[in-house]
Amino acid sequence: MTASFDPKEFQARLQRLDALLQEVERWPNAAAQAHAREIVQAVLDLHGAGLERILGHLSAAGEAGAAVLDACARDEVAAGLLLLHGLHPLELETRVRQALEEVRPRLHSHGGDVELLDARDGIVRLRLEGNCNGCLSSAATMRQTVEEAILGKAPDVTAIEVEGLAEKASPPRGDRPLVALPMV
């Protein structure tokens, strides 16, 4: 029987996998490093091919399959796996919009809002609005809240540009695991 992970456990396992892969990169034997990378890639390729076939079957199943696929896209663990393999059914912009809708009530409670200007090629452009805009500490808190929400739904984002702040773009986060899932 396989283990069923909640999002926190799944995230912890991904972080452990990332740490193990970083350890492999420190091995003194280049051939052993290459062999370990090849093993990991082979496992990823097999899983990706299987997931792609499953998505094909769901697509062919009509409305019932579409409902299952939608549920998978909303499930944090399943969505993370689909993203890892480049198979997530929702476009980047759609996932960013969902993240912003989820965080918007918190922003409104502080007199702020956020507007999505653009989301493509891994880059998200936003504008902070309302009372929080221009106030450095509030804007920084707003920005952090928005970034966390976006990265939870769209860990494939490479940069977030926010109008009206001193720092225009946040760099790609090299400390992120393979797939970042929101902590619940």
Characterize this entry briefly.
The chain has 184 residues and is an alpha+beta fold. It has helices at 7-24, 30-60, 63-74, 76-84, 92-109, 136-153; strands spanning 112-120, 123-130, 159-163, 169-170.
Please characterize this protein's 3D structure:
The structure is a single chain. This protein is an alpha+beta fold. It has helices at 7-24, 30-60, 63-74, 76-84, 92-109, 136-153; strands at 112-120, 123-130, 159-163, 169-170. Helix 6 links the parallel strand 2 (123-130) and strand 3. The radius of gyration is 19 Å and the shape is globular. Residues 166-184 have low confidence and may be disordered.
For the largest sheet, list the strands in their spatial order: 1-2-3-4
Number of helices: 6
Low-confidence stretches: 166-184
Largest sheet: 4 strands, mixed
Nearest-angstrom radius of gyration?
A: 19 Å
- Estimate percent helicity: 55-70%
The count of DSSP E runs of length 2 or more, i.e. the number of strands, is 4
